[in-house]
Amino acid sequence: KNIEIFNLKIDFIEKEKEKFFKENSELDLNNLLIFHHREKYYLNRSDLRGSDIETYVDGLNFLINKGYSLIRLVDKKSKKNIIQNKNYKEYSIDNLSNQKSQYFLIKSCRGFIGQPSGPVSIATLFDKPILETNVWGPRVNAFNKKGSFILKKICKDGKVISYKEAINLNYYKGIHLAHRKMLEIGLNLQDNSSEEILESFKHFDNLINIEQFIPSIEQNNFKKFLPDYMEMKNTDSNIDPYFINTNKDLFKNLIF
């Protein structure tokens, strides 16, 4: 049973519905997905949580072609107008009115796609299906059975290492939070590719349209053999199956 731990007042919902239909007559509220992306070096911080918006374009176009309406939450730092389509809209959350509206939009959507940043936590509060990409740490915001995620790759001295090796280096136990420490010991991150993101979007489309999803043995084993301190171990969401199958070396001594 889905459990919302946060709710909205009925009068607020009705006002936001009226606003939505007035401003977005071309969008389908019943088939809406929300997307949020974090730019690299956002607010002059490290690039650990950020990525290149261009790697998402193929996946976003796939969803639009599948008939979804898509709202991307943006701010003044975001790269704008990445897609030109009547079923795609960029919604600035720099102004206070839209900041409030994002709660209604996320509560009303069929699913949320994002990174470990910003409004993805709102989707968690509403127990929405979440696809979380470019995950760089030990926890995810995708909690329920219709949640999915893919991880950034970890490199040591310029070479991609397995997640088991990263665990043994205590990367997920705290080093992931200290960019300077990562650099000192030769660690850096590699973002998800356009293909990995596109395939994760395809899987998410399937997840939110089937009645019940049964994880594979590999998906279950991934969480089973994670150390207890990695919070993603204890969620009902699962790592994307395509990501496992095309990156088997990354899961050596953990799954395979």
Write structural notes for this entry.
With 256 residues, the chain is of the alpha/beta class. It is 32% helix and 17% strand. It has 9 helices and 10 strands. The strands form 2 sheets. Strands 3-2-1-4-5-6-10 form a 7-stranded parallel β-sheet, with helices on both faces. It has a 3-stranded antiparallel β-sheet with strand order 8-7-9. It is globular and about 55 Å long. The two termini are 33 Å apart. The mean pLDDT is 93.
The structure class reads alpha/beta
Q: Which strand order does the major sheet show?
A: 3-2-1-4-5-6-10
Q: What is the subunit organization of this protein?
A: single chain
The SSE order reads HEHEEHEHEEEEHHEHHEH
Proportion of beta-strand residues: 15-25%
**Mean pLDDT, nearest integer?**
93
Major sheet: size, sense and barrel closure? 7 strands, parallel
Tally of alpha and pi helices:
9
Global outline = globular
Write down the Rg: 18 Å
User: Could you tell me the number of beta strands?
Assistant: 10
Q: Which consecutive residue ranges, at least 5 long each, have pLDDT under 50?
A: none
Span between N and C termini? 33 Å
The share of residues in helices is 25-40%
